[in-house]
Design goal:
Layout (H helix, E strand, L loop, with lengths): L6 H29 L6 H6 L6
């Protein structure tokens, strides 16, 4: 006999896995910045328009 699907539980499990993956990715991204706080600012400098001197 087939099991009755529990859609809410399955959705929560997917959301939980997605949140764990996002947290792991954010921690990996924040680790180099914790060591060198200036390391992440090159991208910010590339995005800013040049100033008039």
């Amino acid at each position: 006999m087939a099991r009755k699907p529990n859609y809410q539980f399955e959705r929560l499990e997917r959301d939980r896995a997605k949140a764990a993956k996002a947290a792991q990715k954010a921690a990996a991204k924040a680790a180099p910045r914790a060591e060198d706080p200036v390391a992440g600012h090159e991208a910010d400098l590339a995005r800013t328009p040049p100033t008039k001197a």
